[in-house]
Amino acid sequence: MLIPNALFAIVLVAFVVALSVAGLALFKRRVPGQILEDNSQAIGGTLGTISLLYAVIVGSVVASGWNRFNAAQTSLNQEASKLGDMLRMTQAFEEPARRDFQTALVRYAESVVTVEWPAMSQGQVVQIGTPPYEALWALFLDYRPKDSHEDAFFNRALGQLNDMGENRRLRVLSTQEQLSVPMWILFVAGGALIICYTYFFPSKHTRFHALKTAFLAAMFGLVLFLMLSLQFPYVGDIGIRPTAMQDVVELWKPRVGL
């Protein structure tokens, strides 16, 4: 079972803060304070440069993760929108084709909500070619429109199915897209370096020094939590929900008579 996001955030931040403060205590025991006072000016200037470079890295990493998160949300909304359009277009078909198409479309939407989403919310990889999706394509490829009126709507619906398939592919692939290992190393190592660098500031008030280090560590822990959340867009309390697809099911399932 996944740890709820709120609890995970608290545990993660507390761990980072505790580790940072413990490192500060160990550092003060090993390094004489006079050495730090003699090099205080050089330490301050270097920290400013390192902090500026790290801020650029954090900004680019967070922006990349946020863009992937938004792209996953957009793919889902467009997938549901195309599905709704197809359900309306198949209204032009004669029976029993109308019911066959609409049943297959609603079954597909149901499979996304009840089968795929629970797996995705656990961080599992979903296959692009699931049985309901393949059955939907088979139905379209085997059908022959009865007249020119039906043919016009069929061709438009087939185009929407192709677009929906592309949105589905992007949604499924978004569960596999991860931030590269070098970027993670740079992000984590850079944060650890800045936290450790605060140890070098001379201070006669140990508790106040520990408090400043704890604040910086807490900020790093929160950013780390944000990155982990964006890394898995369908997992946890802030993960994407299949609301758009659920709306399609709730609207069309009674109409189709399922």
Structure description:
This protein is an all-alpha fold and about 260 residues long. The chain has one domain. It is about 80% helix and about 0% strand. It contains nine helices and no strands. It has helices spanning about 5-30, 35-40, 40-90, 95-120, 130-140, 150-175, 180-195, 205-230, 245-255. The model has no long low-confidence stretch (mean pLDDT about 85).
Order of helices and strands: HHHHHHHHH
Count of folded domains = 1
- Rg over C-alpha atoms, rounded to the nearest angstrom: 27 Å
Distance between the termini: 32 Å
What multimeric state do the chains show? single chain
Structural class: mainly alpha
Main sheet makeup: none
- Return the average pLDDT rounded to an integer: 86
Q: Helical content, roughly?
A: over 70%
Question: What is the helix tally?
Answer: 9
Low-confidence stretches: none
Proportion in β-strands: under 5%
Query: How many DSSP E strands?
Result: 0
Shape: elongated
Structure, briefly:
The chain has 258 residues and is mainly alpha-helical. The protein is 79% helix and 0% strand.
Index terms:
258 residues, mainly alpha, 0% strand
Task: Give the topology.
Elements: H1 5-30, H2 33-38, H3 40-89, H4 97-121, H5 131-142, H6 148-174, H7 181-197, H8 206-231, H9 243-256
Helix pairs in contact: 1-8, 3-4, 3-6, 3-7, 3-8, 3-9, 4-5, 4-9
